[in-house]
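Person: At home tonight, work slowly through the protein below, taking as long as you need, and write a paragraph about the fold.
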Amino acid sequence: MTPEQSSYWQAFCEATGHDRPPEDVFAFGDSPGLADELLALVLADRKKATASHSRWHELGEEPLPRPGDLALVLDGRGKPACIIRTSRVDRHPIKDTTEEFAWAEGEGDRSLSWWMDAHITYWTREAAREGYAFNTGQDAIFHRFDRIWP
């Protein structure tokens, strides 16, 4: 963590009595603009879920979230913005995503159709960058969370 991120985490720990480091420190998305856009949804308590391709966890690129985990969420410039607590984690094929999960993600018009279009575009872009073929039969990690601070 940067000094600014560490100070933010320390302030959280002092205010809440928490005494361990975060399980993850991350920004949503793959660009500063997308990170800020998705963070705004979290701060408005509209976004309470996210999905990540299972490949990133299998390769050790991202830690696999577990219920109760705390994460420090960053904005698009890497500055600390809030802390979330994982409430539920599921793994299943992307094609089996539900309307309810799409709604919990809080993006776009919150429909499953919008969610699929946006995530297929995102994961196809990531797959091209990383050199693998993407399809909706592949698994994703479906992560539900609550913003707990501020």
